[in-house]
Amino acid sequence: MDQQSMQYLRENPKLAEFVRYNPEWYRYLSRGPERIKEMEKEAKIFYGKTLPQQINTLNDRIQMISMLAEVAKAMKD
User: Fold this and answer.
1) CB atoms < 10 A from the CB of 28, how many?
2) Which residues form the domain of 35?
3) HSE of 24 in the Cβ direction (CA atoms, 13 Å)?
4) pLDDT truncated to tens, each residue of the chain (77 aa)?
5) How many domains does the chain have?
6) Could you give the CA distance from residue 15 to residue 7 in angstroms, rounded to a whole number?
7) What is the per-residue DSSP string for 16-49?
8) 0.90 exceeded by the pTM?
């Protein structure tokens, strides 16, 4: 892997962790350092940082809160 890619990974520890969990990216970045943007997109998917994933997470939390409110209401009665 070239020095520029290594430096970029040192500056972004989450991306470095992603590469450790997905070692095929060592090979991809060694052969084509320009694929770093593609790796960032894959890391966002891996960490659940894409907009659809965040919306799903928020929706799940809202459902959980509404269920807890229903349980609390049922226990109050």
Assistant:
1) 17
2) 3-76
3) 4
4) 889 999 999 999 999 999 999 999 999 999 999 999 999 999 999 999 999 999 999 999 999 999 999 999 999 87
5) 1
6) 11
7) HHHHHH-THHHHHHHH-GGGHHHHHHHHHHHHT-
8) no
